[in-house]
Design brief:
Helix 1 (about 5-30) packs antiparallel against helix 11 (about 445-480) and helix 3 (about 105-120) packs antiparallel against helix 10 (about 405-440). The protein folds into two domains: about 5-65 and about 445-480; about 70-435, no CATH class. The chain contains eleven helices and eleven strands. The protein is rod-shaped. It is about 60% helix and about 10% strand. The chain is an alpha+beta fold and about 475 residues long. The chain starts with a helix and ends with a helix.
């Protein structure tokens, strides 16, 4: 081997050692960086004319476990969906409150019964009759507030869909641009690993909104599909469309045309407004808006209808004729069984018993439609109102008969069960996500291994430097001859 060949070998070794030191330092500095893929330098022997010409740096290899990363992304979507669902269902239950909570509807009904019994014991007392009116207003107010909370949560879910869609579209555009940049850098022989890290972070963000699968393509590009088969990115990013609804009322649903569903490249995503984009935080928000919160609203409306019909029975209040509004009304009118949607927001106390609206407290004692005041000592009507709350009845054959408090407890149990199921799903999703995330991190940068590599790089660098020093001595000796 000639001196010039030896010099070439040593210089190429120094270049390779410097590149390896650079990569090791990058790995160590990004050991805790989310989305960072560990790098390694790919080397091969270099020859020129059949003779050794040192070492060649073939490129930088980025290491990720794609199978594990794919499963972790699905876990991301599952956890995002479970978190959003559980948080919303907890708010629904809190708005309705369990029966033993004095501020909940069950507690309000208990207070109403107590006030009615106290008034029946002393029907001549305007103070006790006034307390009955106060308790009635508390019942209707608590019920309508719970219903408004449900509609507010539907509104929030609709807005969440809009934000998720905006984020999804922007992220898909970013991946499309990063694909192009990565391909161009690869063509120029440059290292695109940093761009791949950035692309992985963007795809991870997409994966919380909809569950996705990443497909590798030539030149370092990727394609993205949902797990249900919708194409999100294959060369060009798809466009997801959605129009938020400024105000949502109880009667507005996707089926009625009052609410919007998703579109994919201008076409309807599916009959349920979601289609093959189901899953993740996006799917959770649409399911809450169009299914779970609608079910909650139905439960509240059934409670309102039950309360109104209990007091509208002429057997309970003989002053009523068929079709007359009773003690509780649908905004002053009699309840129409065909118009139950949103009733929990419209329920109100009959103005005829409210002095503040031109009524008289004595009608609590004499009957809602009484034309003249009766004897101040009679308590029969107050007892009938109290008995009506205890009567075992149901507004629907599909609903088990029960007292007014029993019907409230039934709906409260449904809300509690939904919340409990949501929390259990949330716990399972979090546990699965944490285990997969831990497994993915275990395949990342190993600081001990990187430091060992750095020691070997240091030794190799010193050895190549020694070769250069020796060559310099040889050349100097030749020059002295």
């Amino acid at each position: 081997m000639s001196i010039s060949q030896s010099l070439t070998n040593a210089l190429s070794g120094l270049t390779a050692n410097a590149r390896m030191a650079e990569v090791v330092s990058s790995n160590l500095s990004n050991a805790l960086t989310d989305g960072y893929g560990r790098r390694s330098v790919e080397l091969s022997a270099q020859t020129i004319g059949g003779s050794s010409a040192g070492v060649k740096v073939d490129g930088i290899q980025r290491h990720v476990d794609r199978g594990l990363m794919s499963e972790r992304r699905l876990a991301d979507a599952g956890m995002a969906s479970a978190d959003r669902t559980a948080a919303t269902l907890t708010k629904v239950e809190a708005a309705f409150s369990p029966p033993d909570d004095p501020s909940g509807l069950g507690g309000r009904l208990v207070a109403l019964e107590t006030a009615m019994n106290a008034a029946a014991a002393d029907p001549a007392s305007d103070q006790r009759l006034g307390l009955v009116l106060t308790r009635l207003n508390e019942v209707t107010t608590t019920l309508s507030q719970a219903a408004r909370t449900v509609q507010s949560l539907r509104q929030q879910a609709d807005a969440d869909v809009g934000r998720d869609v905006a984020t999804l579209n922007a992220s898909l555009q970013q991946v499309e641009r990063l694909n192009a940049d990565i391909s161009r850098m690869g063509t120029l022989g440059q290292d695109p690993s940093a761009l791949m890290d950035q692309r992985q972070q963007v795809i991870d963000r997409i994966g919380t909104i909809v569950p996705i699968r990443e497909v590798q393509q030539p030149q370092g590009k990727v394609a993205l599909w949902t797990t249900s088969g919708a194409q999100l990115l294959d060369g060009k990013a798809a466009q997801i469309g959605f129009a938020t609804t400024p105000t949502i009322t109880a009667d507005m649903t996707l089926a009625s045309g009052g609410l919007q569903g998703l579109t994919l490249n201008g076409l309807s995503a599916g009959p349920n407004g979601l289609g093959r984009l189901a899953g993740g935080s996006l799917g959770a928000s649409l399911a809450l808006r169009d299914d779970q919160l609608v079910t909650a609203q139905t439960g509240l409306d059934q409670v309102a209808a039950d309360l109104i019909t209990r007091f509208a029975d002429p057997a309970v209040d003989p002053t009523l004729a068929a079709g007359d509004p009773g003690l509780l009304t649908d905004r002053g009118a009699a309840h129409d069984p065909a118009d139950i949607v949103g009733l929990s927001q419209r329920i109100s106390v009959n103005a005829s018993v409210d002095p503040g609206r031109g009524g008289a407290l004595s009608r609590l004692r004499d009957g809602v439609q009484a034309t003249a005041a009766g004897a101040i000592g009679q308590s029969a009507q107050l007892n009938r109102f109290s008995d009506a709350l205890q009567a075992q009845r149901s507004i629907d054959p599909a609903i088990v008969s029960g007292s007014a408090l029993g019907q409230v407890s039934r709906v409260a149990d449904l809300f509690a069960t939904a919340r409990l199921n949501g929390e259990q799903a949330q716990g399972f999703a979090a546990a699965r996500h944490d285990s997969l995330k831990a497994a993915e991190l275990a395949t990342g940068v190993d600081s001990d291994a990187e430091l060992q590599t750095l020691l070997r790089v240091e030794q190799a660098y010193a050895a190549n430097a020694k070769v250069l020093d020796t060559i310099q001595s040889l050349i100097q000796r030749l020059m002295e001859i």
